[in-house]
Amino acid sequence: MSSLAPNHSPLRIPMTPALVVQAPTLNIFSYLYRTARAANHIPGLARMFLTRLYRETVLGWWWLIFRALLPTLGIIAIFQHVPALTPADLPYALHVVSGMMLWTVVSTTLLHGARALQAARRLIGKLATPKLVFLLASGAVPVCFSLIFAAVLAGLIVFEYAATGKVYLRLDWPLLLCPIPILVSFLFCIGICSFISVASLVARDARYVMPLFSQFLFYLTPVIYTLEIMPPSWRLAISYLNPLASLIEFFRWTLFGVGTWDVLSLIAATGISLGVFLLGARFLMLCEWAVADVIEAGRL
Amino acid sequence: MMGQFADRQLPRSAAGGPWGSAIEIVDVSKWGGAVQQLEQRFARNEALQLLMELATLMRGVKHRKKGRLGELRLTPLLRNVSLTIERGSVVGIVDVGGASRTALLRILANCDLPSRGAVRFFGKMAALQHLAAVRLPYNTCRQNMEFDGRLMGWARDDVLGALDRLSGFSELASKCLDIPIRRLSVRVIGELGFSLLCCLDYDILVVDEIAYPRSREVAANWQDYLRRAPERGKTVIVSSRQLRKLYGPCTHLLLIKDAEVLDYGATEVITKRHEDFLALAERAPFADIVGLDSSVEDDEYGELA
Known about the structure:
The complex is a heterodimer of chains A (300) and B (305).
Chain A: E1 19-22, H1 28-37, H2 42-53, H3 62-79, H4 92-114, H5 116-119, H6 121-124, H7 132-137, H8 140-164, H9 179-202, H10 205-220, H11 232-241, H12 243-256, H13 263-296
Helix pairs in contact in A: 3-4, 3-8, 4-8, 4-9, 4-10, 4-12, 9-10, 9-12, 9-13, 11-12, 12-13
Chain B: E1 21-32, H1 34-41, H2 46-66, E2 75-86, E3 90-95, H3 99-108, E4 116-121, E5 125-127, H4 141-151, H5 156-169, H6 171-175, H7 186-200, E6 204-207, H8 216-232, E7 235-238, H9 244-247, E8 252-257, E9 260-266, H10 267-273, H11 275-282, H12 287-290
Parallel strand pairs in B: 3-7, 3-8, 5-6, 6-7
Antiparallel strand pairs in B: 1-2, 1-4, 8-9
């Protein structure tokens, strides 16, 4: 006999629907609202992406630290000897680590976001939520990387203080703005990943495009160099056409009070980032009807 | 637009439910088959097929904007389905072929979205399709179940409570909770998940196959669950490829013909009124080939290996 605990009370009758399953919408704001309502799935999805990250490996979560720090250490070790690259008013290590903190968010978001729909293909057939939720949940990996860099940055600042007696961190109100460039660059990358993740469902070429694109973007972003070394025309083009350039410079300014940025380029960067995000979200919204069909047909 | 029932109230069962409606289905339509058409057209060249699928996705985007989905000649799976399912009903879904039934079950289980319309659930819903969404092979069954529940949006306390009650529903399943899932057979995992679903004790339960092979203990408890569902106010939506198994436990039947609702009502009334349709539905296509001929009296509940 069943021994189910009778925990249902006949008096507990919900008057408002607990769940509404609706046809896909063609209104971007309605789509974003539905994504926000489905945000309760994001922690579970994020945990799924993180759990799968380094499963069946010997080093496990240590890979996160090695992948974050080893390239950075290599860059600092080699390029600190190039005078043109080192800034005048900031130790090169701090310059690189702060740049890599934001750049790692960008590169890991591009990498994992582009594969988010593919990685969650079993779930997509079992849970009808806006597909943007899966891309946003893939942001858990960049968050982990940025936390590692934040810890390294804090350690470097303490080290510089112990070595030189100077506190490079600006303890002022702009420090509170430092998460904003990270968030804006994350939204920019999610917008790009919206197109690539759908394309990767039918063509595996997409997974090879992202590392190339990411590498190209790395050279166009002042992560290991400063914008001042660029000729004025290049500086203008990079500042206005690459939103990440202004965002990184603004990020360094919030932390250390140094950086080549201006209000116009920052507005352009924010506008481009939000525009790409909205375009990507709109594309995902229009493709909702096809994504589940493609996965059901076993195209992966 | 409310579809074919626009001029009168949404159809309710004659008996009615003591506690109001559990599910409202409003003008739900569903079309499908886009990718299958592409596969038929471009089966020979894989690269070209991939490119055409991508192009169709893009064209589908454009057509979606302009409302020209018909250009892809999609198959209508559901057309203007509108009805209210009362709380405390055990509803069996019957159709000829199974495509419409599967489409409706997937929408009711929140696994798929309708092409048009909406479904409102007045109560917490759990579905058999939600189980095994993610399988972490090196984690225990308990951890996998908790993880599944979190992914599906189930409250953690509900899942933990259900795991505590599992031993009363299936002793075998409760013994396997702390074993790594990769060491268990698919049937044991299925039984474990199904037992968890029943022990979760949510208001609405969607099960796409009522006659899934289970152990005798679980089958008996499942029968008891279905029998007591009306008095406990539980709403259960079930279906089966073996349609005769629906007539006993179901209080209501929903008949779907040519993607539209043919009738909905108490089982006794529907079985008398639509004998021909039910006989046609029982003769499922390819049943004799795949071994699902309902006319064969088989062992109702198989033994667990």
